[in-house]
Fold each of these.
Amino acid sequence: MYKSILLFCGLVFIFFTCKTEKKDIKLVTDSSSNELNFDHDPHSFSKPEISSIKHLHLIANIDFPARKIVAKARYTLNPGFGKELILDTRGLEIKSVDLLNESSTINTKFKFGESDSILGKALVIDLNPAFPTVEINYNTTDDAAALMWIDKEQTDSKKFPYLFTQSQSIYARTWIPVPDGPGMRFTYSAEINVPKGMMAAMSANNTQNMNPTGNYKFEMNFPIPAYLLALAVGEFSFLPIGDHTGVYASPSLIEKAKNEFEDLEKMLLTAENLYGKYPWGRYDVLVLPPSFPFGGMENPMLTFVTPSVIAGDRSLTSLLAHELAHSWSGNLITNSTWNDFWINEGFTTYFESRIMESLYGKEYADMLSILGYQDLQKTVRSSDSLDPLTKLHMDLEGQDPELSLGDIAYEKGKLFLRMLEEHYGREKFDSFLKAYFDKFKFQSMNASKFEKFLTENLIHNDTKMLDAIKVWIHTPGLPEFKPSYTYAKFNNVETQVNQFLKSKKTSEIDAKNYSTHEWLHLIRTLPQDSQKFIVKTLDNAFQLSNSGNAEIQCAWLEYVIKNGDAKQYYKNIEAFLCEKGRRKFLITLYTALTEQGQIKIAEIIFQKAKKSYHPISIESIEELLAKS
Ligand code: BES
Ligand code: ZN
C-alpha cells in the first residue's frame, strides 16, 4: 500500500515536474539567447540569458614579488550566445580581449559597464557569432579582496611565501573575470605556474606531490559556480587518510592534521550512507595559514580549513562534517542567488548534525545542536520582530550579500528541516532528502522550487503544514517549535555551575571529561561577575585564557571582556587577536571590546594585528571599529 502510494505520488510528481521544467526553459526563438532560465541575481552584472559560459580555462602566473596574478582566461561559450558577454570584475586590470575559433584569432572591443562599490564593474565584451571562444588577458591588483598574500617571513618554515583565495560570496570577480553568481555554473581547467619548490592546489583534481617545474595542471569536470573557484600556493605536503580522503598542510602541521582528521574517511562513508553517493571523486582537506578568514570553505574536492580546528583532541571536527556535507548541499545543489543562502547553509547544518550523530551518538550531536539553537534564539530575541533579515528567504537587492550571514540561514534553516524530520519521522524525511539530492544535482535551487518539491513529495495536501512552511520560509522570527534534543549533559553542567557559584570552589566542576561543548555551555551559563571572583577562580583552576582550544579560548576571553576585565587579560587578548585570523573570532572579541568602551585597546591591537589578517577580515573589522 505504502509503495503504491509512493509510486502514485512519484508519477504525479514526474508529470508536474516535466510540465514545469518546460515552463522553466525559455523557448529558443532567437539565436542570440541561451535556452536556460536564470533567477535575477542582485549581486551579479552578468546576463547569462544573453551569453553564458560552458568552460573556463585559466592560465596563470603567480608573481609573488609583485603580489599579482598575471593570467589569461579562456572561455568556451554555450551555443546560441548573443551579441555580448557580460562578466563581473572588481579591481582587475584588463589588458586585451580576443575572440577565437578553430582557425583564427581576432581582437575585440570591450568596455566597463555598470559599476558599484560592492559589486565591482561589469565587463562588457563584444562577441562575433563565428567565434565561440573568448580570451581575456588580465592581471589582479592590490584591490583583490579574495587574495591573501603572505610573505615567507610570516610562514612556519620561513622558506616560501603563500597565496590563497577566498571566493565566496562575491570575491571570485576580484581574481578572475567571471559570471559571479551562484546560479551560473561552468566547468574549468587551469595551468598554474608557481615558483620552483612550491606546491599548488585547487578546487579540482589535485596532484599529491610537489612538481619541481612549478607547473601545475587542474581539471574540474563538473559544472560549478564561480564562488567555488579556489587556489592555494605555498609550502605544503599531502598525507592520505583513507582511500578517498587525505590532508594537505605545511610540513610542521601535517602529522598533527592527519591525526586530528583521522575520522575523515568514516565521515565520508557516513554521509554517503545518509544521502547518496559522494559525487566528486576525492575529498581532501587543506589546512591554511591562520589568516584564513573562515572556519572552513567547501571548495569542491578540496575543503579549505583554519588551522585553529586542530585542537589536538579531535573536538572541533564537526567543522569537517559541515564542509563535507556541502559537497551535497551547496556544491551539488546550490542556492540560485544569495537570497536563498539557507538552501546552502541550513541544509548543510542539518546534514552536519546527522553525520555527527551517526558517528558519535545522539548525546554528542545534540550538544552541538543546542549551542546552535541557543545562538539562534539569542539572534531572534535581539532583533526586531519584523526584521526581514530573520527570514529564511531574503531580498538582498542593493545590499551586501554577506548581510545574509549569521545564525538565521544556518540555524533557522536547520531547525526548519528538523521540524519536518520530527513531524514526518526520520525514515520518511531521509528518503525525501535523498530524492532531493538526486533529482536536483548540479542545479540551482530557490525557496519556491524547494517548496514545490516539498509539497509534492512530503506534505501533499496537509493545509496546516503548507501554511506552516510559508511562515518558516517567508516570515521573520521563529515559529513555535521545540526540538527534541537531549539536555542531560548540559543540565549536569548547569548543576555544577550553580554549586560552584554557591561554594566558590572549583572542585564542584568535574571537568575531567568535559567536551568542548560542555565548556562552551559552562561559559554561557555563567552570570555577570559582580563579585569579581568567577573569572579569577575559574582561570586559575582551568587556564581557560590560555586554552589550546580556540573556540573555548574565544568564548572565555569574550566573557572576560564583558565582565570588565579586558585590561587584566590584555596580553591574552592581544596574543589571541594577533595569532588567530578567523573572522568569527575577531568579530566576537572586537565587538566585546567596543561594547565595553575599550575602543582604544581594540584599535591598538587592530593596528598591530592587521598585517596578518585577510582583506575580508580587515574590511569587517574596519567597519566594526568605524561604527563604534
Ligand atoms: N561556506 C561557508 C563559509 C562562508 C560563508 C564563506 C559565507 C563566505 C561567505 C562555510 O561552509 C561555513 O559555513 N563555515 C563556517 C564553519 C561551519 C562549521 C559553521 C565558518 O567558517 O565559521
Ligand atoms: Zn557552510
Amino acid sequence: MAQNSPPYLEALNPEQRAAVFHSGSPLLILAGAGSGKTRVITTKIAYLIREEGLDPRSILAVTFTNKAAREMAERARQIDERAADAMLRTFHSFGAWFLRRNGTLANLDSGFVIYDDDDTVALLSTLMDDTPRAEVKQTAHKIARAKDYFLTPDDPELDLIDHRKKFRKTYADYEERMAKIGNVDFGDLIKKPVEILRNNPGTAERFRERFRVIMVDEYQDANIAQFELLKELCGPHTYLCVVGDDDQSIYRFRGAEVKNILEFPNRFPGTEIIRLERNYRSIEPILRAAASVVDHNAGRLGKKLLSERGAGKIPVLAFLPDQDEEAVFCRVLIENARKSGVPYSHWAVLYRTNAQSQGFEHEFLHHRIPYRVVGSLKFYEREEVKDALALLAFLVNQRDEVAFRRVVNKPSRGVGPATMDRIVTEAMFSDGNLAAAARRITSELSAKARSGVETFLGALEKGRAALNADAATVETATAADTTEPPAKKTKKSAARGGSQEALRAGEGLSVCLVTLVNEAGIAGYHLSHDEIAGNQRIGNLQELANGASIYPASVTGLLQFLEHIELDRSLEQDTDDTAVDVVTLITLHNTKGLEFRRVIMTGIEQGVFPWEDKKGDELEEERRLFYVGATRAMDELYFSSCAMRRLFGRTMPMEPSLFLRELDKECLQVIGDAPYGFVSTAAGKSRPKPSAGISGSKPQVSSDGRWHLGDRIYHDDHGYGAITGIRESGEDGPVIRVRFDTGREQHFLSLHQSSHYTRIGSDD
Ligand code: ATP
Ligand code: MG
C-alpha cells in the first residue's frame, strides 16, 4: 500500500497510517501529547472522503473548543476541499444545532436562549427564597454536575452529588421552571438531545443514517452525558473512533473521569486500541521535564513517548521576587528574542487562573507588545454588557424571567420586587409571556411603577421595530450552522478604546441593540456614570454594538448573535483569531490540544499551581494540568516562580510549587534566587554561577545599556553601593556585580532583577 500512497499519507508513521486505514470495529487511539492524535483525525476525514468516497456530510467530528474545531476543519480542508462539508463541532455546539432542529420533541421552540451560569443562579434564587447567594451558587453548581453525570431529579444516584431531599426538590423545581420559560442551560445542550434520541426511535434512526462516521478528539475529557450522547448517535453501522491521553484529563470538575477513557473498550465491545509513541512536537528535554512531574501520579498507564526531534535547549526555571518582576521577565524574554527575529506569535504565557492575565496585560500594553488573551470571560461579565444582552434575550423570548428581572428596573424606574413578582405570577397563569402580563396589569400599578413599566415596554417595541423580519418566522438556520463566527474585534479594544460619547448605531443588528439600550435608559445611565468614574462602560456597549453590526437585523440574526456569544464565552473562551503576530496569554486549561514554539509557565507556586490546597485526586489532576502545559512547548520552555504575590488584596510570601521539586533537575536550568534548600540534587550542575568569570575590568557598559562600571546604585534592602563588575552571560543577559557600602557583595541579572536596583549616579 505504502509505495502508492499519496503524500499526505506518506507523511504519517506506520501506526498513524494504520489508524487512518482502520475500519469496522470501534477504535481507541491512546497516546501521549504531541504524538499526532489530532493529525490522525484530520487525515482520516480527508482519507475517507478522497479514498473511500464517503459523503463528507456523513462525518461528525467532535472536539473540545470551537477553535480546535476550526483548526481541524482547516487542516482537513488543506488535504481535500470537500472536508468543509463534514460536521466539526464541540459537543455543546452540536447539541445546540441538534436542539434548534429537534427541540420541539422536548417542548422547546427553536427560539430558545442558552442560559449561562449567572443566569441559572439568578433563576435558582427566585426558587430559593432567603437563601444566601453563595448557597444558591453551590446548588447551581450541583445541578450542573448532575447534568454532566446525566442524572435526573429522581435518579437514586443523585445522592452521590447531594443526598438531601431538599436538593432533589430544588433540582426538580428548577427543571420545571426552565421548561416553563422555554430556555436551556449548558447541561441541557447535551442532556436533552440524549433524551430526545431515546424517546424518539425514528429521529434516532435518521441521525444514525446521517452520521456514518463519528470521531472524538480529547476523549479523556468527555463526561458521562457526552458519553451517553455518543452511544445514542452510534447505530450498528456507525464507525466510532476516539482519541485521547489519560495523562491529559483535566476536567474532572466538569464530570469527566480519567476512567472514561480507560473503560472505553468495555463499553464498546470489540474496540481495537492503537498506541502512538513518537512525539513530533517537543525537543527531548521538554518532554523529559513534563514526564518527570506526571510520573508522580499513581494509577497511570505509563505510556512510552520518544522525542522525534531530539536534543535542544533545556527548560529554564526563574525564581523571581514578585509578580511584577515576573511580568518584566516575560516581557524581556519576548523582546530580546524579537531582536533576534523571533516573532511574537511564537510565544505563549500560561497561567493557572484568568485573573493572572492582568499583570501581563499591563506590562505588555506599556511596552507595546501585541498580545491576545484567550479564555478571559471579563468582557462579557461586565454589568453593562450583561444588561444589553439580557434586553436582547428578552426581546426574543418574553418568557425569560431572568432577563426580565435583570432589566425591567434598570436603571431604577420604580418597578420594585413586588411589582416584578406580580407580573411573574400574572404570566404564570397564562402563556408565560411577561411583557404581555405587564401590559395587562399596568392599570393596577402606582403611577411611578406604571410609567416605569411603560418605558420598558416602549423600549422593547422600538427594539422590535428595528428588527425587520417577523418574529414568527424564525428560520431554521441558526448560528450553530455557521462554523465560522463573523470576525469580531478583540475585547481589548472594547475595554480600553471606549469613548465618552453616546452610543452610535451602525449597521445590521446594531441598530436594534443601540435602540434598545438607548430607549431603556441604560446608555444614558452609564454615560453619566462614565463621566464620574471614567470606567468606559459606554465604550464596552459600543463595542458590543460593533459586534452586532455584522449580523442581520432580524430575529434569526439576533439569535445567531446571542448564541455565538454564549458559546464563545462559556464553552471555549476563545478570542479574536484575526491578528497574527501576537503573544498568546492563556490559562493552562485552555491550552489543550494547542502548540507553541516557546512557552512560559508562570506562577508555579504552592497555592497558585497547584491551586489552593489540592490533595489526592485533585492534586493528581493539577499535575496532569502541569503536563498539559509543559507539553505545549515545541522549542523552549520556561517556568517562573515568585517569592511574593498579591492575592486576595494582600501581598503574601509564596513557596515554590511542589511540582518544581518533582521536576527532574537534570533537565532544568535555574536562574534567579532559588529559595534556601531548593537546589539539592543535580540542579547545581546546570545552575549558572554568576560569580565565576566576572572580571571587573572588561565590559564597561552592560549590553542593555543600563549599567556602567562604577555606577552608584541604591537597593531597598541593602542601601547604597557601586557596580564593580559586568559580565555578559549570553542567554540570561548581563550579570551585574554590586558591592554595597556595608561590604556585602551581590550579583543580579539585569534582564530580570533590575527593578530593585536604582542607578543614582556614577563614581567619576
Ligand atoms: P495533544 O495530545 O497535545 O493534543 P496530539 O497527539 O493531538 O497532541 P498533534 O497536534 O496531532 O498531536 O501533533 C503534534 C505535532 O506533531 C503537530 O505539529 C503535527 O503536525 C506534528 N506531527 C504529527 N505527526 C507527525 C508525523 N508523522 N510527522 C511529522 N510531524 C507530525
Ligand atoms: Mg490533539
